[in-house]
Design goal:
- The complex is a heterodimer.
- By secondary structure, chain A is mainly α.
- Chain A contains 10 helices and no strands.
- The longest helix of chain A has about 40 residues.
- Chain B folds into 2 domains: about 45 residues, no CATH class; about 190 residues, MetI-like fold.
- The chains are: A mainly alpha, B mainly alpha.
- Chains A and B meet through helix 3, helix 4, helix 5, helix 7 and helix 8 of A and helix 1, helix 6, helix 7, helix 8 and helix 10 of B.
Chain lengths: ~270, ~325
């Protein structure tokens, strides 16, 4: 009983840690993240600069702390967009008559075929690189897989005998959604939201790595990696730091989702062997 | 009969999707500020030269006319020519595809071979140390950005041990077969690691779902072992969500290829696309995105067919 929720505890701690760092960035950083010191270029980690300095002598730790803003804001907002859009579209299309369902599925399929990052790149080319372009592109693109998975799951729930029984005993569509579909979807929604957060954070990092994300001078983890990677031979461990920040945050959201899934899904709770 | 109808419907949808998505990208790109002809000619853009170029590329015609003429050419395999260099887009795409398609192919093969059995193992032994170890690796794998894995692989196998080249592709392409394979090893492993981690997670949760079904308990009650019951009743059922994830993953796989090509400086479709976006070569971006979406739709179509085979009930919806 106790050890099972360790996933939840670890996940919540990692996410809590990331959020704490995010909040801290507004009050305190060891150094000014944008302060350039040419004489300190690529110095090794030391008591003064815990993670060392980048090619322009800027403190890496301070930049990672401030870089959490770009990542967390983009991830949170785009996941809200994709869950709201994706689940509504998924449930609605699965229960709609054919002439509504087919065009809607068609639209979702088109969105699905355009990979998140590709869509973001095209949108960025049109509207210029900005945090809001990234949010809209990631949110829109992620709503497609959420809608598709949700629709497929609702479809298979609709095949279940208890739904047929509910229909024969006179339940309306709304009642079936509320009583049978949403409760059965709940565990899957948490897994999907956790997966979506992870993908959103990775997508934001990838976009800024490729140069299409939050524009300079605001620090972002992806762009830090891309610039530190050029000095891989001189300073091999440096690109690891921003990558580690990404890993901790993404891992936290994934574990949180899994922990919630175990805590909320009664069939999983019974299953202890 | 039902199957033939299902096939026809899916095929019609495939064609319609291709047309709609290419139109979406076409009009999105044409919203871009700036004059295409001016971009090509720069300071040499005399009014006569600009008009001649606009006529040559049909830029003086209405957008819808431009789109339909692009589409009719694209159907015949002609994606036009670059607005900046005048190079033929189709032949350039095909030559870049000789790097990108093998990369994607090898990576997905590696991902499926390792991830599906490991995911099932992690489900069956999810309270044992090895199951937990597999899930932990998969969790970490999902959390790690593709470019980070690439950088680590380069540090370990190219900078430290120099077993593989840190990037690039033989100048002669596949004529230098050994060299080509060698330069694809690290990129393919990077891509496979990223994709395999996601696939493993889905294989695990799909298998857990199957294990909890009544028919599985019944099979166990008839005396089958857990692995035996899974082999007889589980795999086909567990494969439905796994295969549908594979279909969804083809688009993330292509983005992964773009990133990996950028990390390893591979001259593939992804790297070409990034360069074209940064120099704003709209006709090439249009052609490349159309090619990528066509590829994704074709894979997703095959996945749907496969799902129909795995779960006949889906066919009759």
């Amino acid at each position: 009983m106790k050890q099972r929720n360790s996933t939840l505890v670890i996940g919540a701690s990692l996410v809590g840690f990331s959020i704490a760092v995010f909040l801290l960035s507004f009050f305190w950083t060891p150094y000014d993240p944008l302060e350039i010191n040419p004489e300190l270029s690529l110095t090794r980690p030391s008591a003064a600069h815990w993670l060392g300095t980048d090619e322009n002598g800027r403190d890496i730790l301070s930049n990672i702390i401030v870089g959490s803003r770009a990542t967390l804001v983009v991830a949170m907002v785009s996941v809200m967009i994709c869950m709201l859009l994706g689940v509504s579209i998924g449930v609605a299309t699965a229960m709609s008559p054919k002439w509504v369902e087919s065009p809607a599925v068609f639209g979702v399929d088109i969105l699905l075929a355009l990979p998140t990052v590709l869509l973001a790149i095209v949108l960025t080319a049109v509207y210029g690189p900005s945090t809001s372009t990234a949010v809209v592109a990631i949110g829109l693109a992620l709503s497609a897989p959420v809608a598709q998975v949700t629709r497929r799951e609702v479809k298979s729930i609709l095949l279940a005998d208890y739904v047929t029984a509910a229909k024969t005993s006179g339940s309306g569509s709304l009642r079936i959604v509320r009583k049978h579909i949403l409760p059965n979807l709940r565990a899957s929604l948490f897994v999907q939201a956790s997966g979506a957060s992870a993908i959103a954070i990775l997508a934001e990092a990838t976009l800024s790595y490729l140069g299409f994300g939050t524009p300079p001078p605001d620090p972002s983890w992806g762009r830090m990696m891309a610039s530190l990677q050029q000095y891989l031979i001189v300073a091999p461990i440096f690109p690891l730091w921003p990558g580690l920040a990404i890993v901790i945050t993404v891992l936290g959201f994934n574990l949180l989702g899994d922990g919630l899934r175990e805590a909320l899904d009664p069939t999983l709770r019974r299953q202890t062997d | 009969m039902a199957t033939a109808f299902y096939l026809m419907r899916r095929l019609a949808l495939l064609v319609a999707s291709l047309i709609a998505s290419s139109a979406l990208v076409f009009f999105l790109l044409r919203l871009l500020p700036g004059d295409l002809a001016q971009a090509r000619l720069g300071i040499y853009g005399t009014p006569e030269a600009l008009n001649q170029l606009r006529e040559e590329y049909g830029l003086d015609r209405p957008l819808t006319t431009q789109y339909f003429s692009w589409l009719s050419n694209a159907i015949r395999g002609d994606l036009g020519s670059s607005i900046l260099t005048g190079a033929d887009i189709t032949s350039e795409l095909l030559s870049k595809a000789t790097v990108t398609l093998p990369l994607i192919g090898i990576a997905s093969l590696l991902a499926v071979i390792f991830a599906v059995p490991l995911g099932m193992l992690a489900a069956l032994r999810r309270r044992k140390w090895d199951g937990i170890a597999v899930s932990t690796v998969s969790q970490l794998g999902i959390a790690v950005p593709t470019f980070w894995i690439g950088v680590i692989f380069v540090t370990m196998f190219a900078v430290q041990t120099q077993a593989f080249p840190p990037g690039g592709f033989p100048f002669g392409g596949w004529a230098d077969f050994g060299g080509a394979v060698k330069s694809l090893v690290l990129p393919a492993c990077t891509l496979a690691f990223a994709q395999g981690a996601v696939l493993m997670r889905f294989a695990r949760s799909a298998t857990i779902d199957v294990i909890q079904q009544d028919y599985f308990r019944t099979a166990r009650a008839t005396g089958l072992s857990r692995a035996g019951a899974l082999r007889v009743h589980g795999i086909r059922n567990a494969m439905v969500p796994v295969v549908s994830v594979l279909g969804i993953q083809i688009s993330t796989l292509i983005v992964g290829a773009i990133i990996v090509e950028s990390v390893f400086a591979l001259p593939g479709i992804g790297q070409m696309l990034l360069q074209d976006v940064s120099v704003r070569d709209y006709t090439k971006v249009q052609g490349t995105v159309a090619f990528i979406t066509a590829l994704v739709f074709a894979v997703s179509f095959s996945v749907d067919l496969l799902l129909g085979v795995l779960n006949p009930r889906l066919r009759n919806q």
